[in-house]
Structure formats: C-alpha cells, structure tokens
Amino acid sequence: MKTDPDDPLNSDVTELGCLILGMRTAYARKENAMAYARQTTGALRNSSVATLIAYDLQAGRYIAAARANPEGRVRWCGQLSEILNTYITEQSSVLEVGCGEATTLAGVLKRLNNTPRHAFGFDISWSRCAEGLGWLSEHNASARLFVADLFNIPLEDASIDVVYTSHSLEPNGGQEEDAIRELMRVARRAVILFEPIYELADMEAQARMRAHGYVRGLKETAERLGAKVSDYRLLAYTANALNPSGLVLIEKEPSTSTGKPTWRCPLTHMPLNDLGDVFASAQSGLVYPALRGIPMLRSEHGIVASKIIGR
Ligand SMILES: C[S@@+](CC[C@H](N)C(=O)[O-])C[C@H]1O[C@@H](n2cnc3c(N)ncnc32)[C@H](O)[C@@H]1O
After folding, report:
1. CATH number of the domain located at residue range(s) 263-311 in this protein
2. Residue 149 Cα to ligand 1 middle (Å)
3. Given the DSSP bridges, would you call strands 245-251 and 93-97 parallel, antiparallel or unpaired?
4. Can you give the pTM of this predicted structure?
C-alpha cells in the first residue's frame, strides 16, 4: 500500500491497520520489520507507527541483553551518568526520551551523584514501558514512565531541567529538526543526546545507518535551530562498532528549577491534570487513559469524555 501524506484520511490509525499484521509476520520470520514497513508504504523514512510496532514487538529483548552483558550496561550507564552529573542536582527533574525498557534509565539513576527530585521516562511503545517498570523495581530505581511520541511531548515548555536521549532519535532519520526542536522546547537547562553520530562514523557504519534510516547531522541541525552545542564527540564506550555512539550536548541558560513538571494535552496543548486512572483537560473535555497504570499520552489516545471531570 502506498500512503499519501496529503490525504487527510491517511492517519496513523489507518497506517496501523495497514501494517500491524504484515510487520508481525515479518518479525516472526526474523525479517527486518521496519524495512517491511518502508517497502509496504513506499516511505523513505521510518514512520512513528512503524517504529512503534517494530519496537513493541521487540519488548523484553533489552532486558535480556542487559542480563546477558551486565558489564556492558555498567559501562554504558556509567559514561552517561558522568556527563549528566554536571547538570543534575537533588532539585532537578530529568527525562529520558524513548526510554525503552528503562535499562539505561535505571542504570543512570543509580549512578548519578545526586538523585533528581523528579525522574521521568517515556516511550512510544506500551510494552516496553511495562517491561521498564519491572526493571526499575527490580533495580530499586524510581521513575514515572508513560507512553508518548517524542515529536509531541505531553509536557509544558521548559518543564524539565535535563532532557536526554539514549539512541532513541536513532530510527527517526529525516526528522532531526522536528525532534531536536521538541526536546529543546521541553528542556530548561540542557538537552543531552547520546546518539549514533553519522558524521563521525566510518564508511561501513555510515552505509548501515543509511540503510536503516538512522538520524544524521544532529549537531548541524541543533545549531541551525539556534542551539549552543558545547560538546560533540564519539563516546569512549559503544556497544556496536557499526553504530558508534556519540554525544551532542546542548546547553540552555542556567536557571533554577521551578518544581514539579507540568503536563499538557498533546492535541490542544492545554493543561492536563493527573487524576490517577486518567489524565484530563478541563478546558477541552479530552481525557487520556492509563493502561494497566501506564499513562497513554499520544494524541491518538485522546478520548472525548467531557463529563469525566468531577465524577
Ligand atoms: C534503540 S532503543 C533505545 C532505548 C533506550 N533509550 C535505551 O537506552 O535502552 C530506541 C527507543 O526509542 C523509542 N522511540 C523511537 N522513536 C520514538 C518516538 N517517536 N517517540 C517515542 N519513543 C520513540 C523506541 O520505541 C525504542 O524503545
């Protein structure tokens, strides 16, 4: 099926219906599910729906990998925490964007010099967040996990001190500008990208990254958006030499934390109140449910239920 981006009916929901069974079959056959999605829709880049399905199918694999290679996890989380330490105090809020199964988030939180007052992580996949909650509890780490899309984060402007990624921008090649703009909107103090760096990779790694639709030009994109990039380099430890991990450190003006991060509706950008089993907007009457305790905060999850507030 070819999808037409100008067709108003060409929504994520339509794409989900078109791709879900085929991607599951491709995954079961041990084929690359993202490549199947690109071929099926004719898209040149990985869509959010394809990313969601592909990563949701893999849920549990990062935890299995962390158990199989605990030293690798320690090295990865250790080098991230060393960089994050400069920006995180006991008053801080921190957010891992695209946290997957929280294997990085848990390791980072355990190794920071200061435990941040508010720790958040979100992923586009519910199954990965669910796995992540189990991993956090197993490792005595505490963070609020929710489902969201990194291109439309359900948090107010400048509401999180430190926003970081760990290979989550990776599959979103071609959308670097939208991604970095959104992270800079939410961050108050710093945006710290731990991502594969195409421009610093060798030719073999670059060819692989192009084939997978990975991000490129992160530093140049951030600078074009007016960001101050204060550090840019490959990291000492990388799990896969064909996907070399690097750092793009974007600093914003130092400012004091303003306390608890505040939610906003991904559709209307109005304030969203956490009522426990749902997140609700008094202004719009839109609500977002929690699925087995995990808030579902993508725009696709919005439900018109104007009478829920006050019940
Ligand atoms: C390579 S994994 C890294 C997971 C985790 N950060 C870690 O270090 O283990 C990439 C993650 O980014 C998430 N992701 C990719 N695109 C996303 C998007 N548009 N919104 C939210 N999450 C996204 C995927 O679902 C996946 O869990």
Report:
1. 2.20.25
2. 10
3. unpaired
4. 0.95
